[in-house]
Request: fold
Amino acid sequence: MSTQGIGDPFTRLFGRYLRDLGLPVTQQREVVADVVFGTDGHLSVDDIERQIRSRGERIGKATIYRTLDLLVRSRLVEEHDFGEGFKRYEHRLSRHPVHEHLICLECAKVTEFESNEMYGIENRVRAEHGFAPARHRLEIYGLCRECQEAGVELPNEGLMCPIETV
Ligand SMILES: [Zn+2]
Ligand SMILES: [Zn+2]
Reply:
């Protein structure tokens, strides 16, 4: 079995996390971690499985799920639920560690953007509520430019708000 590609510092960090928990650092777990750390994207389990296969490896879905669970618990990876009926996984310490998400309801494309305003909101929350923000999550759902240009329209049946728009 090939071990090429396993050398990402985050994969080694994950290995240390597993050892600290007394869990075995298996080659399969390392491959799953390496795939997730090797991209800045938002990967579904299917995406991850495809990349594993393209590396010539075979890892069962159950192992992938268990490893993702450990990666999320290690806080090296963030789990997203963009309402697609499955989860997506993202390296938390990728090139742009702090960013927000735009999710297209038509083609499911996820676009990242940075928002300085969110820091202002955190500061205001701290001042007004005496709350100490640690992290936040901002997801905006709608139509991407391509889908709008293709003429896609969203049905206006209770998507955002139960009040009927005329
Ligand atoms: Zn779209
Ligand atoms: Zn992201």
User: Anything to note?
Assistant: The first strand starts at residue 77 and ends at 80. Residues 1-5 have pLDDT under 50 and may be disordered. The helical segments are 9-20, 27-37, 45-54, 61-73, 117-129, 145-149. Residues 69 and 79 are 9 Å apart (CA to CA).
